[in-house]
Amino acid sequence: MNEPAGTTLRLIFPQWQGGNHPTYHFGARLLEWLAPAPTGPVEEVPVAPPSAAPLPLERGIVARAALREQLHQARRLIELHRPDRIVVLGGDCLVDLAPFAYLNERYDGDLAVLWVDTHPDIMTPQQFQHAHAMVLGNLMGQGDADFAAAVPRPISPHNVLYVGLHDPTAWEAQQMARLGLRNVPPDQLQREGSQPVVDWFKSTGARHLAVHLDLDVLDPALFGAVLFARPDAPPGAFDGVAQGELSVPTVVQLLSDVAQHADIVGLGIAEHLPWAALALRDMLARLPLLAAPVVDRPG
Protein backbone atom coordinates (compact mmCIF):
# COMPACT_ATOMS: atom_id res chain seq x y z
CA MET A 1 0.00 0.00 0.00
CA ASN A 2 1.45 3.35 -1.00
CA GLU A 3 1.82 5.79 1.87
CA PRO A 4 -0.51 8.76 1.36
CA ALA A 5 0.67 12.30 1.92
CA GLY A 6 0.77 13.56 5.49
CA THR A 7 3.00 14.56 8.35
CA THR A 8 5.28 12.00 9.99
CA LEU A 9 6.53 13.03 13.41
CA ARG A 10 9.73 11.45 14.66
CA LEU A 11 9.65 11.26 18.44
CA ILE A 12 12.95 10.69 20.22
CA PHE A 13 12.13 9.23 23.61
CA PRO A 14 15.18 8.07 25.62
CA GLN A 15 13.08 6.84 28.54
CA TRP A 16 14.86 4.36 30.76
CA GLN A 17 12.92 4.47 34.04
CA GLY A 18 10.10 2.23 32.78
CA GLY A 19 12.50 -0.70 32.63
CA ASN A 20 14.77 0.69 35.36
CA HIS A 21 17.76 0.22 33.06
CA PRO A 22 20.03 3.21 32.31
CA THR A 23 21.31 1.67 29.06
CA TYR A 24 17.93 2.28 27.40
CA HIS A 25 18.81 5.99 27.45
CA PHE A 26 22.02 5.39 25.50
CA GLY A 27 20.24 2.90 23.24
CA ALA A 28 17.69 5.49 22.18
CA ARG A 29 20.42 8.00 21.46
CA LEU A 30 22.22 5.53 19.23
CA LEU A 31 18.96 4.65 17.42
CA GLU A 32 18.51 8.35 16.70
CA TRP A 33 21.98 8.51 15.15
CA LEU A 34 21.56 5.28 13.16
CA ALA A 35 18.11 5.97 11.72
CA PRO A 36 17.70 7.43 8.22
CA ALA A 37 17.24 11.19 8.05
CA PRO A 38 13.71 12.29 9.03
CA THR A 39 11.27 13.55 6.42
CA GLY A 40 9.15 15.55 8.86
CA PRO A 41 9.32 17.25 12.23
CA VAL A 42 11.42 15.85 15.07
CA GLU A 43 10.74 16.26 18.77
CA GLU A 44 12.50 14.91 21.82
CA VAL A 45 10.70 14.06 25.04
CA PRO A 46 12.67 15.53 27.96
CA VAL A 47 14.03 12.69 30.07
CA ALA A 48 16.38 13.05 33.01
CA PRO A 49 19.65 11.26 32.26
CA PRO A 50 20.49 8.21 34.35
CA SER A 51 22.19 8.74 37.68
CA ALA A 52 23.52 6.57 40.46
CA ALA A 53 20.54 7.37 42.69
CA PRO A 54 18.04 4.49 42.99
CA LEU A 55 14.59 5.08 41.53
CA PRO A 56 11.74 5.23 44.04
CA LEU A 57 8.98 2.62 44.22
CA GLU A 58 5.75 4.64 44.14
CA ARG A 59 2.44 2.82 44.69
CA GLY A 60 3.72 -0.36 43.13
CA ILE A 61 5.54 1.17 40.14
CA VAL A 62 9.18 2.19 39.98
CA ALA A 63 9.55 5.91 39.09
CA ARG A 64 5.79 6.40 38.70
CA ALA A 65 5.97 10.21 38.95
CA ALA A 66 8.79 10.56 36.41
CA LEU A 67 7.06 8.21 33.99
CA ARG A 68 3.75 10.06 34.25
CA GLU A 69 5.47 13.38 33.59
CA GLN A 70 7.28 11.97 30.55
CA LEU A 71 4.01 10.50 29.31
CA HIS A 72 2.34 13.91 29.51
CA GLN A 73 5.30 15.59 27.80
CA ALA A 74 5.15 13.07 24.96
CA ARG A 75 1.46 13.75 24.43
CA ARG A 76 2.08 17.50 24.55
CA LEU A 77 4.72 17.26 21.81
CA ILE A 78 2.47 15.08 19.67
CA GLU A 79 -0.40 17.55 20.00
CA LEU A 80 1.88 20.37 18.80
CA HIS A 81 1.98 18.69 15.39
CA ARG A 82 -1.17 16.52 15.23
CA PRO A 83 0.74 14.22 12.85
CA ASP A 84 -0.71 11.58 10.54
CA ARG A 85 2.09 9.16 11.43
CA ILE A 86 4.57 8.74 14.26
CA VAL A 87 7.95 7.02 14.47
CA VAL A 88 9.14 6.51 18.05
CA LEU A 89 12.79 5.84 18.81
CA GLY A 90 13.09 4.65 22.42
CA GLY A 91 13.77 3.82 25.18
CA ASP A 92 11.85 1.16 27.09
CA CYS A 93 8.54 -0.23 25.78
CA LEU A 94 6.40 2.31 27.65
CA VAL A 95 7.42 4.94 25.07
CA ASP A 96 4.61 3.73 22.78
CA LEU A 97 1.81 4.50 25.23
CA ALA A 98 1.17 8.15 24.31
CA PRO A 99 1.83 7.78 20.54
CA PHE A 100 -0.41 4.74 20.02
CA ALA A 101 -3.15 6.22 22.21
CA TYR A 102 -3.04 9.35 20.06
CA LEU A 103 -3.16 7.36 16.82
CA ASN A 104 -6.24 5.42 17.93
CA GLU A 105 -7.98 8.73 18.56
CA ARG A 106 -6.61 10.27 15.37
CA TYR A 107 -8.12 7.45 13.31
CA ASP A 108 -11.34 7.19 15.33
CA GLY A 109 -10.69 3.61 16.45
CA ASP A 110 -9.77 2.47 12.93
CA LEU A 111 -6.38 1.24 14.11
CA ALA A 112 -4.92 -2.22 14.47
CA VAL A 113 -1.79 -2.87 16.53
CA LEU A 114 0.91 -5.39 15.69
CA TRP A 115 2.93 -6.13 18.83
CA VAL A 116 6.23 -7.68 17.71
CA ASP A 117 7.62 -8.78 21.05
CA THR A 118 8.71 -11.82 23.01
CA HIS A 119 6.58 -10.74 25.99
CA PRO A 120 2.90 -9.71 26.21
CA ASP A 121 3.34 -6.41 28.15
CA ILE A 122 0.01 -6.73 29.96
CA MET A 123 1.20 -6.96 33.56
CA THR A 124 -0.09 -4.80 36.42
CA PRO A 125 1.65 -3.51 39.57
CA GLN A 126 0.44 -6.64 41.33
CA GLN A 127 2.68 -8.78 39.11
CA PHE A 128 5.64 -6.51 38.37
CA GLN A 129 7.11 -3.16 39.39
CA HIS A 130 8.36 -1.98 36.00
CA ALA A 131 5.83 -0.14 33.85
CA HIS A 132 7.39 -1.11 30.52
CA ALA A 133 5.82 -4.55 31.01
CA MET A 134 2.33 -2.99 31.32
CA VAL A 135 2.07 -0.79 28.23
CA LEU A 136 -0.15 -2.90 25.96
CA GLY A 137 -2.54 -3.58 28.83
CA ASN A 138 -2.77 0.19 29.39
CA LEU A 139 -3.47 0.77 25.68
CA MET A 140 -6.45 -1.57 26.02
CA GLY A 141 -7.71 0.27 29.11
CA GLN A 142 -6.35 -2.33 31.52
CA GLY A 143 -4.01 -2.21 34.50
CA ASP A 144 -2.87 0.77 36.54
CA ALA A 145 -5.43 3.58 36.52
CA ASP A 146 -2.86 6.39 36.15
CA PHE A 147 -1.49 4.99 32.90
CA ALA A 148 -4.76 3.61 31.53
CA ALA A 149 -6.21 7.11 31.93
CA ALA A 150 -3.77 8.30 29.25
CA VAL A 151 -5.80 6.29 26.72
CA PRO A 152 -9.17 8.03 26.28
CA ARG A 153 -10.11 5.59 23.52
CA PRO A 154 -8.81 2.11 24.42
CA ILE A 155 -7.70 -0.19 21.62
CA SER A 156 -9.92 -3.24 21.14
CA PRO A 157 -8.18 -6.57 21.89
CA HIS A 158 -9.72 -7.79 18.60
CA ASN A 159 -7.43 -5.31 16.85
CA VAL A 160 -4.24 -6.56 18.51
CA LEU A 161 -1.92 -9.34 17.34
CA TYR A 162 1.31 -10.56 18.88
CA VAL A 163 4.13 -11.77 16.68
CA GLY A 164 7.12 -13.60 18.15
CA LEU A 165 5.66 -14.13 21.61
CA HIS A 166 6.26 -17.52 23.21
CA ASP A 167 6.25 -19.16 26.62
CA PRO A 168 4.22 -16.57 28.54
CA THR A 169 3.85 -17.04 32.28
CA ALA A 170 0.74 -18.81 33.54
CA TRP A 171 -0.76 -15.48 34.61
CA GLU A 172 0.01 -13.87 31.24
CA ALA A 173 -1.48 -16.81 29.35
CA GLN A 174 -4.65 -16.60 31.44
CA GLN A 175 -4.98 -12.89 30.78
CA MET A 176 -4.34 -13.31 27.07
CA ALA A 177 -7.12 -15.88 26.95
CA ARG A 178 -9.46 -13.64 28.96
CA LEU A 179 -8.90 -10.74 26.57
CA GLY A 180 -8.99 -12.90 23.45
CA LEU A 181 -5.53 -11.81 22.35
CA ARG A 182 -4.10 -13.70 19.39
CA ASN A 183 -0.49 -14.63 18.67
CA VAL A 184 1.66 -15.82 15.79
CA PRO A 185 4.56 -17.51 17.62
CA PRO A 186 8.05 -17.80 16.12
CA ASP A 187 7.64 -21.35 14.84
CA GLN A 188 4.41 -20.48 12.99
CA LEU A 189 5.97 -17.39 11.44
CA GLN A 190 8.97 -19.39 10.30
CA ARG A 191 6.73 -22.17 8.96
CA GLU A 192 3.98 -20.12 7.28
CA GLY A 193 5.58 -16.75 6.65
CA SER A 194 3.64 -13.50 6.83
CA GLN A 195 0.27 -14.79 5.61
CA PRO A 196 -1.26 -15.41 9.08
CA VAL A 197 -0.45 -11.81 10.01
CA VAL A 198 -1.90 -10.45 6.77
CA ASP A 199 -5.03 -12.57 7.30
CA TRP A 200 -5.40 -11.22 10.84
CA PHE A 201 -5.09 -7.62 9.67
CA LYS A 202 -7.77 -8.12 7.05
CA SER A 203 -10.03 -9.73 9.66
CA THR A 204 -9.92 -6.62 11.86
CA GLY A 205 -11.51 -4.46 9.18
CA ALA A 206 -9.07 -1.68 10.10
CA ARG A 207 -7.22 0.31 7.48
CA HIS A 208 -4.46 1.74 9.69
CA LEU A 209 -1.77 -0.13 11.59
CA ALA A 210 0.68 0.74 14.38
CA VAL A 211 3.68 -1.54 14.87
CA HIS A 212 5.46 -1.95 18.19
CA LEU A 213 8.89 -3.51 17.67
CA ASP A 214 10.62 -4.59 20.86
CA LEU A 215 14.10 -5.58 19.75
CA ASP A 216 14.15 -8.37 22.32
CA VAL A 217 12.01 -10.35 19.85
CA LEU A 218 15.29 -10.97 18.03
CA ASP A 219 17.42 -14.02 18.79
CA PRO A 220 20.25 -12.82 21.08
CA ALA A 221 22.62 -15.21 19.35
CA LEU A 222 22.00 -13.33 16.10
CA PHE A 223 21.53 -9.77 17.39
CA GLY A 224 23.58 -8.73 20.39
CA ALA A 225 21.98 -5.40 21.35
CA VAL A 226 19.28 -6.88 23.59
CA LEU A 227 18.97 -7.60 27.28
CA PHE A 228 19.56 -11.33 26.93
CA ALA A 229 22.92 -10.79 25.21
CA ARG A 230 24.34 -8.80 28.11
CA PRO A 231 27.98 -9.93 28.23
CA ASP A 232 28.45 -9.59 31.98
CA ALA A 233 25.22 -11.36 32.98
CA PRO A 234 25.92 -14.17 35.46
CA PRO A 235 25.07 -17.73 34.42
CA GLY A 236 21.36 -18.44 34.81
CA ALA A 237 20.41 -14.74 35.05
CA PHE A 238 17.65 -15.16 32.47
CA ASP A 239 16.52 -18.68 33.26
CA GLY A 240 12.77 -19.03 32.89
CA VAL A 241 12.38 -15.80 30.89
CA ALA A 242 11.33 -16.06 27.25
CA GLN A 243 14.03 -14.89 24.85
CA GLY A 244 13.70 -13.79 21.24
CA GLU A 245 13.77 -16.34 18.44
CA LEU A 246 13.41 -14.20 15.28
CA SER A 247 16.05 -12.87 12.89
CA VAL A 248 16.38 -9.37 11.46
CA PRO A 249 15.56 -10.57 7.90
CA THR A 250 12.42 -12.31 9.18
CA VAL A 251 11.15 -9.14 10.89
CA VAL A 252 11.97 -6.93 7.91
CA GLN A 253 10.19 -9.32 5.56
CA LEU A 254 7.16 -9.50 7.83
CA LEU A 255 6.74 -5.73 8.06
CA SER A 256 7.38 -5.28 4.33
CA ASP A 257 4.66 -7.84 3.54
CA VAL A 258 2.17 -6.29 5.95
CA ALA A 259 2.85 -2.83 4.53
CA GLN A 260 1.44 -4.06 1.20
CA HIS A 261 -1.98 -4.37 2.87
CA ALA A 262 -1.98 -1.80 5.70
CA ASP A 263 -1.46 1.92 6.03
CA ILE A 264 1.28 1.83 8.65
CA VAL A 265 0.83 5.01 10.69
CA GLY A 266 2.93 4.13 13.74
CA LEU A 267 6.28 2.47 14.28
CA GLY A 268 7.80 2.25 17.74
CA ILE A 269 11.24 0.74 18.24
CA ALA A 270 12.16 -0.04 21.81
CA GLU A 271 14.57 -1.78 24.19
CA HIS A 272 17.80 -1.23 22.28
CA LEU A 273 20.71 -2.21 24.52
CA PRO A 274 23.94 -1.79 22.51
CA TRP A 275 26.40 -3.42 24.89
CA ALA A 276 29.45 -3.26 22.61
CA ALA A 277 28.91 0.40 21.73
CA LEU A 278 28.44 1.24 25.40
CA ALA A 279 31.65 -0.54 26.36
CA LEU A 280 33.52 1.25 23.58
CA ARG A 281 32.13 4.63 24.64
CA ASP A 282 33.28 4.03 28.20
CA MET A 283 36.71 2.83 27.05
CA LEU A 284 37.24 5.87 24.82
CA ALA A 285 36.46 8.16 27.72
CA ARG A 286 39.43 6.69 29.62
CA LEU A 287 42.10 6.68 26.91
CA PRO A 288 45.03 9.13 26.73
CA LEU A 289 44.34 12.21 24.59
CA LEU A 290 40.60 11.44 24.71
CA ALA A 291 39.90 11.41 28.41
CA ALA A 292 39.07 14.68 30.11
CA PRO A 293 42.30 16.16 31.49
CA VAL A 294 42.92 15.92 35.20
CA VAL A 295 43.37 19.39 36.68
CA ASP A 296 46.06 19.60 39.32
CA ARG A 297 44.87 21.32 42.44
CA PRO A 298 47.30 23.24 44.65
CA GLY A 299 48.10 21.84 48.00
Structure commentary:
- By secondary structure, the protein is of the alpha/beta class.
- It has a single domain (8-283), classed as Ureohydrolase domain (Arginase, Chain A), CATH 3.40.800.10.
- The chain is built from ten helices and ten strands.
- It has helices at residues 23-34, 64-81, 97-106, 135-139, 145-148, 170-179, 186-192, 195-204, 248-259, 275-284, and strands at residues 8-13, 42-44, 57-58, 61-62, 85-90, 111-116, 160-163, 182-184, 208-214, 263-270.
Entry keywords:
299 residues; Arginase, Chain A; two-stranded antiparallel sheet; 10 helices; 10 strands
Quick rundown:
With 299 residues, the chain is of the alpha/beta class. It is built from ten helices and ten strands.
Distance between the termini: 71 Å
Q: So, the CATH homologous superfamily?
A: Ureohydrolase domain
Mean pLDDT: 96
CATH class: Alpha Beta
Shape: globular
Looking at how many chains there are and whether they match, the oligomeric state comes to single chain
Order of helices and strands: EHEEEHEHEHHEHEHHEHEH
What's the SSE blueprint?
Layout: E1 8-13, H1 23-34, E2 42-44, E3 57-58, E4 61-62, H2 64-81, E5 85-90, H3 97-106, E6 111-116, H4 135-139, H5 145-148, E7 160-163, H6 170-179, E8 182-184, H7 186-192, H8 195-204, E9 208-214, H9 248-259, E10 263-270, H10 275-284
Parallel strand pairs: 1-2, 1-5, 5-10, 6-7, 6-9, 7-8, 9-10
Antiparallel strand pairs: 3-4
Helix pairs in contact: 2-3
